[in-house]
């Protein structure tokens, strides 16, 4: 008579992990008491506290380098943008710009007029030269980012023009 076959390592690992996982899921299922479906009852309530865990932490407060989600969560709360995406309507609205940009026929050049009262947190006025410098730091004329070098287009410092292709409006509203 031959000995009984030994379970393979894969089978042992599968069973060893599946049984505790099933037990843990069953423990999370709630009671099977008096007919409750597990769903909340009554009208939805506004307010309260939502606790959210982001498994990665932010790594920089430098906006041109902040293109990853945890950085955006912090940077978006301490910096302003040319445009703002309204979370309720999902439409773009002016923020530092006075209006949505003028767009040329080929839709590859966008011209913004900046608010005269826009300032940095220390009170220094924001002008077109500042916007140009920030976009050039961000895009560095890198075609892979679909941004080319931008330019200030008026002497008063309130006009700014940049060219771009796909995703450019996402960059100015920071919807990345």
From TrEMBL:
Record organism: Brachybacterium aquaticum
Protein name per UniProt: ABC-type transport system substrate-binding protein
TM regions (residue ranges): none
Localization terms from the record: Cell envelope
GO molecular function, one term: peptide transmembrane transporter activity
Keywords in alphabetical order: Signal, Transport
Signal peptide range: 1-26
Occurrences of domain Solute-binding protein family (ranges): 92-144
Family note: Belongs to the bacterial solute-binding protein 5 family.
Annotated GO biological process: peptide transport
SUPFAM superfamilies given in the database record: Periplasmic binding protein-like II
GO cellular component: cell envelope
A matching Pfam family: SBP_bac_5
């Amino acid at each position: 008579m031959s000995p009984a076959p030994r379970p393979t390592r894969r089978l042992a690992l599968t069973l060893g992990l599946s049984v505790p996982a099933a037990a843990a899921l069953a423990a999370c299922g709630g009671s099977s008491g008096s007919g409750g479906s597990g769903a909340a009852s009554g009208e939805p309530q506004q307010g309260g506290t939502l606790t959210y865990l982001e498994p990665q932490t932010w790594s920089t407060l430098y906006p041109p380098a902040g293109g990853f989600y945890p950085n955006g969560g912090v940077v978006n709360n301490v910096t302003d943008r040319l445009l703002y995406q309204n979370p309720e309507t999902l439409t773009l609205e002016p923020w530092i710009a006075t209006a949505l940009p003028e767009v040329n026929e080929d839709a590859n050049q966008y011209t913004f007029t900046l608010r005269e009262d826009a300032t940095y947190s220390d009170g220094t006025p924001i002008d077109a030269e500042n916007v140009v410098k920030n976009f050039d730091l961000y895009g560095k004329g890198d075609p892979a980012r679909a941004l080319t070098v931008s330019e200030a287009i008026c002497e008063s410092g309130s006009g700014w023009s940049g060219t771009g292709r796909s995703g450019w409006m996402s960059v100015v509203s920071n919807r990345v």
